[in-house]
Amino acid sequence: MNVGVTLERARHIVGQFAGRRLVVLGDLMLDEFIWGKVRRISPEAPVPVVEVKRESWHLGGAGNVVANLLALGADATPVGIIGDDDGGRLLLRQFAERGADIRNIVVTPTRPTTRKTRIVAHSQQMVRADREDNSPINAEIETQILAVFAQALANADAVIISDYDKGLLTPHVLQQTIELAQARGLAVCLDPKIKNFLHYRAVDVITPNQLEAERAAGFEITEDASLRLAAERIRDVLDCKNVLITRGEHGMSLLDAAGVLTNIPTVAREVYDVTGAGDTVIATLALALASGAQLREAAVIANHAAGVVVGKIGTATCSLEELRNELLDLS
């Protein structure tokens, strides 16, 4: 599907991914999966008994954005907080194994590492247990985050802000980090949550999903007219340049700074799990922009990357080889 970029051009952009340096500010989480089978119902309560076969751990939240960047060949620096606990140590190990720069992760004894445990049987999630403290960080941690963020910008090509509403991105942190990045002339791409919506001021690209866009605009999106109106309202209220609304099976829609609305159809062949698809979108989008792509080109490439990850179970990434193969659809 050639909407704004040719295969030759897309290949050129993707060829520039290696070595690009992106800073990812956001809520770092550990995604834990317990995999098993169900053969019986518990005699203690009417619930299935999952016979555990294996466990796995993955970078979640903003960490999954970092994982996607690394899988695509970029250099990624996570900026965020973890607890002084087993979950935090597991996260650091996951980052280190992938080659991420972990010097700008703040370890605090006052908050636990956000940890989401999913029990999956026969490819079906049975239950999820969350361990977290999503209260706003205090002024001391804010100061630490701003200091390490400023250090991380030294060699950056672009900035991603990934908000999972776990307390890191206070209004003060958002304002200061966006201003710091823009003072250095860096593009800022932001994946929002509705709670902080009014504090995402003047970013280059904001990427709400359709539900978030509807809640921010105050009405339901039903067709192109309401879609355009919602995107325009978000752009005007936040004074941001571009709005990219991800729309699940409907693909994504981009309202650019010139007021042009482009609908980009989904390229997913089979959808097994949408977990983390938004992380893949913003990682690929920002990386493409940092590699010289125009916004519409970057959005098309990000759409193809999302088409890869929704065909996988659990928290997933899109590799550079997978993206290159997916882009063959542009021919």
Write a structural description.
With 331 residues, this protein is α/β, with parallel strands linked by helices. It has a single domain, classed as Ribokinase (UDP-N-acetylmuramoyl-L-alanine:D-glutamate ligase). The protein is built from 10 helices and 13 strands. The chain has a 9-stranded mixed sheet with strand order 5-4-1-8-9-10-11-12-13, with helices on both faces. Helix 5 links the parallel strand 8 (158-162) and strand 9 (187-191). The longest helix has 15 residues, at 224-238. The radius of gyration is 19 Å and the shape is globular.
Brief summary:
This protein is of the alpha/beta class.
Features:
single chain; 331 residues; alpha/beta; UDP-N-acetylmuramoyl-L-alanine:D-glutamate ligase; nine-stranded mixed beta sheet; four-stranded mixed beta sheet; 10 helices
CATH hierarchy, class: Alpha Beta
Q: What CATH architecture label applies?
A: 3-Layer(aba) Sandwich
What share of residues are in beta strands? 25-35%
Number of domains: 1
How are the SSEs placed, and which strands pair?
Elements: H1 7-14, E1 21-26, E2 28-41, E3 48-61, H2 62-71, E4 75-83, H3 86-98, E5 105-108, E6 114-121, E7 124-131, H4 139-152, E8 158-162, H5 171-183, E9 187-191, E10 205-206, H6 210-217, H7 224-238, E11 242-246, E12 252-255, E13 261-264, H8 277-290, H9 295-309, H10 320-326
Parallel strand pairs: 1-4, 1-8, 2-6, 4-5, 8-9, 9-10, 10-11
Antiparallel strand pairs: 2-3, 6-7, 11-12, 12-13
